[in-house]
Amino acid sequence: MITNIDTAPVAEKPSLVPLTKMHAGDEARFCRADLRCEDCDLLRAMGLTDHCTLRICRGGEPCIIEVNSTRLALAAPLARRILVTPLGDHHQPTR
Questions:
Q1: Going by DSSP bridges, is the β-strand pair 17-18/27-33 parallel, antiparallel, or unpaired?
Q2: Which helix (H) or strand (E) holds 82?
Q3: What domain range is 74 assigned to?
Q4: CATH number of residue 43's parent domain
Q5: How far apart are CA 19 and CA 74, in angstroms?
Q6: pLDDT tens column, 38-80
Q7: Number of domains in the chain
Q8: 41 domain-assigned
């Protein structure tokens, strides 16, 4: 048997999902947004910063999230362009 000792196990990359695929009560980590600079600046000012943790308060239209004890209501077209990494084992994205 030949083994390669230089090969470390590859960590599984977390899957990115649009905010609109999350359910009420789910938690996620913000990863990126495909938005205009002005929109990104506004969301950043309201607490949606790189790798912050957020909780989904309500899915649908509007999508309501909580970031650092602040709730934000996001229109579905905006929420669809925000990609997050689900946290916890209970999340099953909608299809």
A1: unpaired
A2: strand 82-87
A3: 34-87
A4: 2.30.30.90
A5: 10
A6: 999 999 999 999 889 999 999 989 999 999 999 999 999 999 9
A7: 1
A8: yes
